[in-house]
Amino acid sequence: MTQSNSGAFTLTNKTTGDSWDLPVIDGSLGPSVIDVRKLYGQTGHFTFDPGFTSTGSCESALTFIDGDKGVLLHRGYSIEDLAEHSDFLDVAYLLIYGELPNKAEKANFDRDVTYHTMVHEQMMNFFRGFRRDAHPMAIMCGVVGAMSAFYHDSTDIHDEHQRMVATFRLIAKMPTIAAMAYKYSIGQPFNYPKNNLSYAENFLDMTFRVPAEEYKMSPTIARAMDRIFILHADHEQNASTSTVRLASSSGANPFACIAAGVACLWGPAHGGANEAVLNMLMEIGHKDNIPEYLEKAKDKNDPFRLMGFGHRVYKNYDPRAKVMQKSCYEVLEELDLKDPLLDLAMELERIALEDPYFVEKKLFPNVDFYSGIVLKALGFPTSMFTVLFAVARTVGWVAQWKEQIEDPTLKIGRPRQLYTGPEQRDYVPLGKRS
Ligand code: CMC
């Protein structure tokens, strides 16, 4: 973060003629920011930006997005390169430590994550308190939050060692907890992790193995799972990451903060979109119905939106969607599946990208447009889609959490508001109220 050479902005009150210089700060890439930290003290005014459309909420060195060009970088490396050449734990190391690991560092990191994959045996009982038909994301919110009750020896955020242990525990145990949520919902016994498997293989094994037989691992499927995790690992200051940062700014423990992120991710405008895309495709049902649904999406009086389309930051094709589309073909070919939903999705994409409404508003497919089809082909029910997103995003959440906690200038996040309620008035006793 450096003071910009491109000067300062001057804010002028046109009525009084008072003016204030607002410094500009440059990052390494992307738009500079106008530093308004002293604005209230100097002018008595707040800035107003609900939805944070023009607000940089923090300084971060993890992830960069150029939404106009469709670029996504983690610590400077493109998502396309990482998805092609790295595995998920490679990307996790990169996000957490800032550099790709060498061979020895990677081996140590993989071993440390693997060491923490089992969950406390008592957690099994905790799971059994949920109704069988509970949504797995509801279970995730509860169980991830409950981790602070099971692992209180890694909740001291001021202790560097405890922060690291919590980081490993969260990354390592999320797949175990996610697989347990799935097993519980279908009435099958929980599986213990197998530490000779990779992160993605282990997750697939815990999810799909049954005691009666071995799970036959396909390298193509395991690679697709790993790639899905990479594509969802981090995404700058999105809603759930900002939730984690806000929760953590109060000094809350890491498990509580990540549980807050899980809850935020659940919403259909965020992580719930991949589940919503598949439900939407099934509702559309046939190519002939696409025009009718496009009209609904364009109608301001109709709440229907084209799920998997549009993004707050990308005003171009989401680079993750391209990789996901490629993975989609590979998986369907490996499994020798012909999913009519893929044909429907491709036709919907083609028609929408030619439609002036979507062109003018720069609404392109996002990562969730194809991920649902891949996950369905891998055998996951739609209710598990957001859970998988949460498993992957845990890496981004903990990396961002760690970055924030280690920032000596950290302050509690406390936005202000534009109050539009009644002015102060006299209290009316119950008997005198009309
Ligand atoms: N279908 C129809 N119209 C849309 C859509 C859509 N999917 N997305 C945006 N618009 C319209 C919107 O109505 C608005 O029109 P107008 O300017 O006339 O009022 C304009 O495009 C801008 O939309 P916005 O809602 O102001 O944009 P936003 O940045 O607040 O919302 C979004 C971004 C992702 C929430 C939104 O595009 C959306 O709801 N998409 C569908 C849900 C989805 O796929 N979410 C996954 C996002 S990617 C995964 C993740 O990062 O979590």
What do these coordinates show?
With 434 residues, the chain is mainly α. Helices cover 50% and strands 7% of the residues. It contains 18 helices and six strands. It has helices at residues 39-43, 79-85, 88-97, 103-115, 122-128, 136-150, 160-186, 199-208, 219-231, 239-249, 254-265, 273-284, 290-298, 319-334, 340-354, 356-360, 368-378, 385-405, and strands at 2-12, 19-26, 33-34, 63-66, 71-74, 77-78. A hairpin with a 2-residue loop joins strand 5 and strand 6 (77-78). Helix 9 crosses helix 18 (385-405). Bound molecules: carboxymethyl coenzyme *A. Residues 235, 238, 269-271, 273, 297, 305-312, 361, 363, 366-368 line the site of carboxymethyl coenzyme *A (CMC). Carboxymethyl coenzyme *A binds next to loops.
- Tally of separate helices: 18
* Shape label: globular
Proportion of strand residues: 5-15%
Q: Helix/strand-derived class?
A: mainly alpha
Q: Can you lay out the helices and strands and say which pair or pack?
A:
Blueprint lengths: L1 E11 L6 E8 L6 E2 L4 H5 L19 E4 L4 E4 L2 E2 H7 L2 H10 L5 H13 L6 H7 L7 H15 L9 H27 L12 H10 L10 H13 L7 H11 L4 H12 L7 H12 L5 H9 L20 H16 L5 H15 L1 H5 L7 H11 L6 H21 L29
Antiparallel strand pairs: 1-2, 2-3, 4-5, 5-6
Helix pairs in contact: 3-18, 4-7, 6-7, 6-11, 7-8, 7-18, 8-9, 9-14, 9-17, 9-18, 10-11, 10-18, 11-18, 12-17, 14-17
The site of carboxymethyl coenzyme *A has 20 residues, from loops.
